[in-house]
Amino acid sequence: MPALISGLPEFLLYFATALALVTLYLFAYSLATAHNEFALIRQNVMSAALALGLSLIGFALPLSSAIVHAKRVWDVLIWGLIAIVVQILIYWLVRLIMPNLSQRIASDELAAALFLGAASLAGGIINAASMTY
Fold it and tell me: Crossing angle, helix 46-69 and helix 8-32, to 10 degrees?
């Protein structure tokens, strides 16, 4: 295989794994929240898009760190699953502070969505930095 594309099979494996984990994340996160992000986004509720989008970035950061540091694709799978759990925990922790969080997001209150999104992003940054294996 030419040197230019010698890493293509590994790229495809890691990229496909990441796409599968992102899909799993979106499914698991939407089940864990008390509001239906995708229905709200289809209704053009900006707060739902903002909160979900920032949480997705908060998940993608540790996932990308896992890919960079991985010795095997199994490392990415394990750390990706941990990142999913961390993001869901962040949502639940924010709900402790703001019990009516999902209702506020469904009502398109940007302050609630931005706070959840910032917490998700901060959690993802810390999660990614903690992956020192």
Answer: 140
d(CA 35, CA 62): 25
Look at the chain and report how many structural domains it folds into. Answer: 1
Question: Cα separation of 93 and 71, whole Å?
Answer: 32
Write out the two tokens for 22.
Answer: 């992102």
The reply to whether 2 falls in a domain is no
Contacts of residues 62-67 at CB distance under 8 Å and 24 or more positions apart, as own/partner, are 62/86, 62/124, 62/127, 62/128, 62/131, 63/18, 63/21, 63/22, 64/18, 64/128, 65/127, 65/128, 65/129, 65/131, 66/131, 67/14, 67/18
In a domain, 5, yes or no: no
Provide the domain limits for residue 71. 14-130
Average pLDDT over residues 1-28: 91
Per-residue model confidence as pLDDT tens digits over 83-122: 999 999 999 999 999 999 999 999 999 999 999 999 999 9
Which pLDDT value is given to residue 8? 92
Q: Does any domain span residue 122?
A: yes
Instruction: Tell whether 8 is covered by a domain.
Output: no
